[in-house]
Write a structure and sequence with these properties.
- It is a single chain.
- With about 325 residues, this protein is mainly α.
- The protein contains 16 helices and no strands.
- The termini are far apart.
- The protein has 2 domains: about 190 residues, no CATH class; about 120 residues, no CATH class.
Length: about 325
């Protein structure tokens, strides 16, 4: 077989390998991994409130009263309900670490970049009240798409400004140590980055867009609304969702606008039809995806475990499968 033919055959696989191993996708994957303690804590809160055994529910109600779910709710409020800004911080942190590995003599403190990314996101989102409270409806999984995009953009802007040495304030003090020097060097780049996000928000408001999340939500869902609720739309939706997972992005969260707009609403219409004695108009709903495609989420995990055990080529993969299975069945 000629060398040219081998190269042509390997080209597609090289493309996918390069895509999966791209720097930003690796950073996003690492950042989402860093949020696992928060995600698990939130999952524990959900489990405490919704453990599906009636005897457990009655016991908790009898011991702690009707408001016993408040504890798990507070855990949710501090974890999964604010997953987007948490992810923004971890992405900024990872981008700083990647930058520092390439620029050993020109380091940026990861916590500073993570904080700037966090503040940049809060600069452009629509507040939930006149008191400028954090909008809980957009800082959970529904806002994850904008969170990932804004964290990458804000981090890159900060690093571009930081690379201009004239924008760094020099601060020398033996008493303060190197920490103050690091902070002062980041002051101007941080102000400029957050200022640009604020300017972007002003510009969007000037053209009549006050809620950027809703704009993105509608943009993602619009093509699917035109396609309607049918088998073809469901296949396209599911392909995109899993393709995003292949790239290391939470596909279900990124495609949440479509799930909410089409399939969750279809489920509600089915419930209304059944309540009035009519036939449910839709087969493909959120429940359909959860039951037969995602298999409840955990079903996909079991499929992955089976695949790892059947196709493992080394002890490392076997160990991963053992760890995943032990955690799966211990929860």
């Amino acid at each position: 077989m000629s060398t040219g033919l081998v190269a042509r055959k390997n080209k597609p696989s090289s493309f996918w390998i390069g895509l999966v191993n791209s720097e930003y996708l690796s950073i996003i994957r690492n950042a989402l991994t860093l949020t696992l303690p928060v995600v698990i804590a939130g999952a524990v809160g959900v489990l405490l409130n919704n453990f599906p055994i009636e005897a457990y529910q009655n016991m908790m109600r009898g011991v702690f009263g009707e408001g016993w779910r408040a504890f798990g709710g507070y855990i949710w409020d501090g974890t999964l309900a604010i997953l987007s800004p948490v992810t923004v911080f971890t992405i900024g942190y990872n981008i700083a670490e990647s930058h520092n590995q390439k620029h050993l003599l020109d380091n940026v403190h990861p916590a500073i970049l993570g904080t700037v990314a966090f503040c940049s996101l809060l600069t452009i989102i629509e507040p939930s009240s006149k008191d400028f409270a954090i909008p809980y409806n957009w800082v959970g999984i529904h806002g994850l798409f904008l969170a990932i995009a804004s964290s990458i953009i804000s981090s890159e802007l900060f690093l571009r400004f930081f690379s201009v040495r004239r924008l760094r304030i020099r601060f020398f003090s033996k008493e303060a140590g190197s920490a103050m020097s690091t902070i002062f060097s980041a002051l101007v780049p941080a102000v400029l980055t957050i200022g640009l996000f604020a300017l972007f928000k002003v510009g969007m408001a000037a053209i009549g867009v006050s809620d950027i999340h809703s704009l993105i939500y509608d943009a993602i869902a619009a093509p699917f609304k035109n396609l309607g609720n049918n088998l073809g739309t469901a296949l396209i939706y599911n392909f995109i969702r899993h393709f995003l997972w292949f790239l290391g992005i939470h596909g279900s969260n990124a495609m949440e606008p479509v799930m909410t707009e089409i399939y969750a609403s279809a489920m509600r219409l089915n419930e209304l039809a059944v309540a009035t004695g009519e036939r449910a108009p839709f087969i493909i709903t959120k429940t359909f995806f959860d039951t037969y495609i995602s298999i409840g989420g955990a079903g996909n995990t079991l499929s992955l475990l089976i695949a790892l055990f059947l196709t493992r080529m080394n002890s490392g993969l076997k160990r991963i499968a053992q760890i995943l299975s032990s955690r799966r069945y211990s929860i």
